[in-house]
Model the fold of this input.
Amino acid sequence: MQYLVILRILGLLLMVFSTTMLPPVLVDWIYQESASLPFIEAFAFLFAAGMLLFLPLRKHNKDLRLRDGFMVVVMFWFVLGSAGGLPLYLSEVPDMSVTDAVFESISGLTTTGATVIVGLDDLPHAILFYRQELQWLGGMGIIVLAVAVLPMLGIGGMQLYRAETPGPVKDTKLTPRITETAKALWYIYLGLTVSCGLAYWLAGMEAFDAIAHAFSTVAIGGFSTHDASMGYYQNSGIELIAIVFMLLSGVNFALHFTAFRHRRLTPYLRDAEFTTYITVLFVVSVVTISYLQFTKTFDSPMESIIEGLFQVVSIGTTTGFTTQEYYNWPGFLPVLLLYISFMGGCAGSTGGGIKVIRILLLVKQGVRELRRLVHPSAQFAVKIGRKPVPDNVIEAIWGFFAAYFAISALLILLLMASGLNQDTAFSAVAACLNNLGPGLDQVGQNYASINDFAKWLLCLAMLLGRLEIFTLLVLFTPGFWRK
Done:
C-alpha cells in the first residue's frame, strides 16, 4: 500500500473540494442574507488541511495499484462526507449538531436525499444551494469528476474508476482513455442538468429553484428547497418534466453516449437492462394508478395517473422527490414502492439500489436453475442480449446480493435495538442503503426525530449503498492488507 501517495491525492482532492464552499458565498452575495461566513471559514479550514497533506508529499507521484484505488475512494467519501458538514455545523440557521450536519452532508454527497432539516422554506439561499450542490457533485461521483478535470493528479485513473463506478461489469470504457471517458460522462451529465433546469424554468419555477431542482433531479438525489418537495408547486407540467429527467438519469450513461454518438435510438431498444428498467416501472405504474383509482384516493383519473406515475418513477429510480405523502397511501402501495427502490436505476447511472442489471441476471440465473432440474445433463448459458455472461460475474452478483441483505438485516436489528419501531427501522435502512431518502412511518417526511446512534448507522448505510457494498467491505478482508 502506497500510503504517502494516497495521502497526497487526498490532500489535493480536499483542496479541490474546499472550492465547493465558494458558490454559496456568491449566492449569498446575490440575495444579501449575511449567511456566507460559515462557508468562508469552512473553505479556509479545508483548503489549509488539504495543503498540509499535499505540500510535504507533492513529489510522491507514483501510479496507483488497484488496492490503492479502493483506499482512496473509501477515504475520500468518508472524509468528504464529514468535511461537507462543516459549513452546516458552523451556520446559525439551521442550528445543527455535529451528527445532523454530517448526516445531511453524507446524504447529499451520496445522493440519498434523506434530510434532518425542518423548515427548508425559511433557510438562507446559500444553505439551500449548498445542499443541492452536494447532490449534483455526488451524482456522477466526485472521483470521476476529479479524473475528468484534474489530469494533474498523475495517477492511473482506471483504478479509481473501477473502484467507484457502479455496476457488476467495471472494465467497459466508452473511449480508449479513462480521462476521455470521464469527460464524456461529465458532458452528458452537464447537458442533462442544463436541459432540466431550462425546462423547469419554462414550466414556472423561479430561476433559483429551477437550478436547484435540476441539480437534484439529474443527480437522482431528491433534496428540495421546500419542505413539501415537488408538491410545493402544484404544477402538473413540472411533475411531468421531473418524470422525464428522472427516467433519463436512471439510464446507463454509456447508452446516452452511444445513442448521441450514433444519432439514433436503437442502442436503447437493443439494451436488455434498459427494456427491463422501463418494463418494471411501467408495470408498477399501472398497478399503482389502478389501485389509487380503485380506492378513490384522488378526485379524478388524471390526478391518479400523474401522482401515481410521479411517485413510482421517483422512488423506483431512487430519486426521492415527493408530491404526496405516499407513505400514507392505502393498502400495499407504500411497501410496493419501497420494494422497487431495491431495484433502483441501471448500472452506470446516478441511481442507487441493487441495479437493474443485477436483478435481471439473478432472474435469468433462477430460470437456468429451473431448466437444469428438468434437463440435468444440458448446458445452459445466462445471456444478456446474445452475449453469454461469464459465470464469475454471476457468482459475484450472488455474493453482492447475499452481502446486501445480510447487512440490511444487521442494520435493521441495530436500529430496532436503538429504539426505532420495525416499520421505521426497515424503511430507513432500505431508503438509505438504496440511496432513496424518504422511508415510512417516522422517516416518511424527514429523519429529524430519530436518535443520534441511528443517524450514524444510517450514514454508514448510505456510504455502503453509494460504494456498492464491496468497495467498502474489501477493506475489512485480511488479504487486502497482505503484501
User: Anything to note?
Assistant: Strands lie at 383-384, 387-388. Confidence is low (pLDDT under 50) at residues 145-161. The two ends are 8 Å apart (CA to CA). The first strand starts at residue 383 and ends at 384.
